[in-house]
Amino acid sequence: MAPSVQQILEDTPSVLPEKIAAVVKEVPKLKEERQTQRQTLFYYSKALTNNHQYPQYLPTWNHGQKYSPLQPFIHTEHGKNADATFPNLLPQGSKAKKLTPTIGSEVTGVQLSKLDAAGKDQLALFVAQRKVVAFRDQDLADLPLQEALDFGGYFGRHHIHPTSGSPEGFPELHIVHRYGAPGTSEFDSFLAGRNSSTSFHSDVSYEAQTPGTTFLYIFDSPEEGGDTVFANQVEAYNRLSEPLKERLHGLKAVHSGFEQAQYSRDKEGVVRREPVKNEHPIVRTHPATGEKALFVNQGFTRSIIGLKKEESDALLAFLFNHISRGIDWQARVRWAPKTVVVWDNRVTVHSATLDWSSGERRHLARITPQAEIPFETPYVKPEEELKA
Ligand SMILES: [Fe+2]
């Protein structure tokens, strides 16, 4: 079997030609193994020429990884009974600044990895309220990989992504690794056939238990560009007219992972777990805040149960357009070294931005704890809500 990226990178450059020769000489017969080798060598050569600071976080694709379907688990919502004055999360000396009135905060003066249990509970609630929070000057990327996972595992069962690259031995870490330069696959696939890279989605919403408090931390980013844009799905719901809100309650939509799996297969990538579809309410309620949010996204929501195709397509197209054009409930998060961005995947959608062409690397890791099965609470007229 080909050596892992991690193994190769730990070797000194002087032994590299021999290593590569050994790998090439042992070309296995299986197509999957050839693909793994090709990717390994690609990232190895890129890592050398680009002076990777976090080689332990380089993605690998192990075609031998096969996982059985996810089983249900009981999720504990840590934000539910947290202290809403946030004494452990935001002690004296820390600073929390809103990015916009409706969504997003930026926090300095707090070290996430040092939070006690009460602080982590408050983190879950704070993020549920602000939807996305950028924590600056964090040490998460510098911790051993298992310690980073142990931190994130507090918030729910780790999701293992069916198709993405991950560091060898750590399939729970979802790696984003891109070179923004014309001629690379990102530019080819996104911009050759599209006008923009805008693609709002809620991560892996096709799972039965979708992610909740979710973490993304950066290793390398372009000097400018590569921001992540988040949209507040609670505010997107609140802006709808009362008759439409009322009509959406009780409807469910199909979320599908099949297209993502097929895309990976077409590129000879990995499919670690067979794809699934799940039906989720179009309006879901957050277990800690009680807020109602739209829960449809362009990335994975395919149809509305019970509606005919034209009706379903038209209503989803309206909702997708409504969510993505509402800049008054969106925030643009700028990355900087040692930033950890935490969002609540139940009440937000987000989009990457492919706007840099300098060839600079954008390299991040995501920790994706799963949460409860999405549920909804009944529609309440505004006048009744005021009385309550
Ligand atoms: Fe995403």
From TrEMBL:
Native organism: Lachnellula hyalina
Name by which UniProt lists this protein: Alpha-ketoglutarate-dependent sulfonate dioxygenase
Top-level taxon of origin: Eukaryota
Protein encoded by which gene: JLP1_5
UniProt keyword list: Dioxygenase, Iron, Metal-binding, Oxidoreductase
Gene Ontology cellular component annotations, sorted alphabetically: cytoplasm
GO MF terms held by the record: 2-oxoglutarate-dependent dioxygenase activity; metal ion binding
Cofactor(s) for this UniProt protein: Fe(2+)
Keyword presence, Oxidoreductase: yes
PANTHER family xrefs: ALPHA-KETOGLUTARATE-DEPENDENT SULFONATE DIOXYGENASE, ALPHA-KETOGLUTARATE-DEPENDENT TAURINE DIOXYGENASE (AFU_ORTHOLOGUE AFUA_8G02210)-RELATED
InterPro entries to which the protein is assigned, alphabetical: AtsK-like (IPR051323), TauD-like_sf (IPR042098), TauD/TfdA-like (IPR003819)
SUPFAM superfamilies documented for this protein: Clavaminate synthase-like
Family to which the UniProt record says this protein belongs: Belongs to the TfdA dioxygenase family.
Domain named TauD/TfdA-like: residues: 96-368
